[in-house]
Amino acid sequence: MAFRDIFDTYNWQDIRDGIYAKTAADVEEALHKSTRTLEDFKALISPAALPYLEPMAAESSRLTQKRFGRTVQMYIPMYLSNECQNICTYCGFSLHNKIPRTTLTDEQILREVEIIKSYGYDHVLLVTGEATHTVGVDYFAHALELLRPHFSHISMEVQPLDREAYERLMPLGLSAVLVYQETYHRDRYKEHHPKGKKSNFYYRLDTPDRLGKAGVHKIGLGVLLGLDDWRTDTFFTALHLGYLERTYWKTRYSISFPRLRPAEGLAAPVSVMSDRELVQLICAYRLLNEEVELSVSTRESERFRNNIFRIGATTMSAGSRTDPGGYASELEALEQFEVSDERTPQQIAHMITSQGYDVVWKDWDPAFN
Amino acid sequence: MQPLVLRDKTFTSRLFTGTGKFSSPALMREALLASGSELVTTALKRIDIRHTDDDNILTHLDHEQFSLLPNTSGARTAREAVFAAQLAREALETHWLKLEIHPDPKYLLPDPIETLQAAEELVKLGFVVLPYIHADPVLCKRLEDVGVAAVMPLGSPIGSNGGLQTRDFLRIIIEQSSVPVVVDAGIGAPSHAAAAMEMGAAAVLVNTAIAVSPDPVRMAGAFRQAVEAGRTAYEAQLGQQIQQAVASSPLTAFLEE
User: Fold this and answer.
1) Quick one: which of A214, A368, A367 has its CA closest to B76?
2) Which residues of chain A have a pLDDT value below 50?
3) CB contact under 8 A, A71 and B21
4) CATH topology of domain B4-256
5) With contact defined as beta carbons under 8 Å apart, do B66 and B32 qualify?
6) pLDDT tens-digit profile of A345-361?
7) Model confidence over A34-74: pLDDT tens digits?
């Protein structure tokens, strides 16, 4: 049994119709329950729930504080490479984009480390495109060995790998892997990923199963909000999360909320998700699942990020650069997407503490790898 | 209130606390002082063990007032826990350890098999081991056999504020135990803490209910009072609730006929 066996029994259109048929009565019922189901989640992400944003936020805030306290965990991405053999219509690193390509050398990585550490970070997220020959498992293994002495928690957001590769990387310091399905709509997925290894929908869909079997400590899920109807896509994310929690019960999970943003050569979003809708979605996840980590990146605006952690987000990045070598600013590689919140990590930390929340830089120890 | 003796240490407070979930280290310190607690658990994973002098949590914990009880939260196996314990001992200079092995990150429920294995090994390595476990009376006896300093059964899942859902089993554990029983996890209100103490628990450990309260300092004080009241009532031999049934006509009257 893998998630695909469950996934294949669902019909996109039926789910979409079910969500849009939810009524105010369904929303109220979902709001007042103590244990919620995927049907309740559908009601909470439906248009019928938009008038209930304030009570949803209040409950989300309460549940988040109960589990996570008044704390926000901090991480920072480090882009190691923008080489990529995939065509993704929405991404700045896409193969057809004529941009300078680079993959960081050891010296360049260590210069990035120096700057990131000076910000106070102890959790780092490694990001690459997909260029198997130059930025494959051997490169990752080497990068982890270089980085491990400097960070307590290392996560990766790179191409999906085989189970054996994850098993090889874990003892080298890999704690978490983020792999976004982009969209659970099979035809839309093919439209947006016409070329490269990424065009294989099911290989990507199976990735969290491979990660779970390999025993990776934390798996990050998400979709690119805007590729298709975000409500239907996030229902499938929630379905995926529920399956994974039951099957790989020793693993922690996080969800991210990348909204489509401008990038060079990019297709415009099919549906644009508003700030109100993103708040609705974050609340809906929290009301469905008290334990899942919810992560908000610098793609979002200052105003949004100044408020969202009090509602339900548990994890934030700050001071992010989305180009390889961007912290040391030595290279002129193109960024993957445009950062919206450009404040420094210290400014963000101050913003968080001034609202009565503690900033957590370290919440893992290499002893557990 | 009698002091609590745990191995080489004597505690006047029977309220153990933790450092997690507070909105700032300064508020944490203020709340812990208000609680009167003398034993404070902190997760190794949150501590910068390479630079303990600069660590934001440790620098707020006055060693005169608080004994540190490092915990192994994050460990999924006995092997990981033993390794983490050794790091904690070296970095924090204490051989006291709250042994936590919860491979399930959702409800943070402890693994009894790994916990027993790790406890046995850690005792041999010279640790004072306080294991966090289910309210399982047989497991408590097995842990006692391998030499733990106390047992820490849960009242309900960590952070749930659910109270003493395991009451019947806690009662058996307290009755049978030769080591102090510290009720840990799930204590959400001072009344829960008082109830545990009235039952004869040696101490309780409270974190979430204090840290997440809108007023952690006052809540810490409330828990302090509740623990003292519960313990004092236990020592004064709280009257048992009596389930009395009175038959409407005497059942033994015929003997007098």
Assistant:
1) A368
2) none
3) yes
4) TIM Barrel (3.20.20)
5) yes
6) 999 999 999 999 999 99
7) 889 999 999 999 999 999 999 999 999 999 999 999 999 99
Give the one of A69, A250, A357 whose C-beta lies nearest to B76's C-beta.
Answer: A250
User: Which three-class secondary structure state does DSSP give residue B88?
Assistant: helix
What is the torsion angle, in degrees rounded to the nearest 10, for the CA atoms of residue A347, residue A351, residue A356 and residue A362?
-40
Domains, chain A, in order of start with CATH, read 3-368 (3.20.20.70)
Q: Own/partner pairs for A109-115, CB < 8 Å, 24+ apart?
A: A109/A78, A109/A80, A109/A143, A109/A146, A109/A147, A110/A146, A111/A325, A111/A327, A111/A328, A111/A330, A112/A78, A112/A325, A112/A326, A112/A327, A112/A328, A113/A78, A113/A146, A113/A147, A113/A150, A114/A328, A115/A327, A115/A328
- Does A360 contact B46 at a Cβ distance shorter than 8 Å? yes
Q: Verify whether the Cβ–Cβ distance A67 to B159 is below 8 Å.
A: yes
Residue-wise over B123-134: b if at least 16 C-beta within 10 A, else e?
A: beeebbbbbbbb
ipTM of the complex: 0.72
Nearest CA in chain B to A247: B104
Provide the shortest C-alpha distance from residue A66 to chain B (in Å). Answer: 6
Joined together, the tokens standing for residue A107 give: 């010296």
Q: For residue B107, give how far its alpha carbon lies from the nearest alpha carbon of chain A (Å).
A: 8
Tell me the residue type at A258: P
Question: Which residue in the block uniquely carries the two structure tokens 């106390």?
Answer: B150
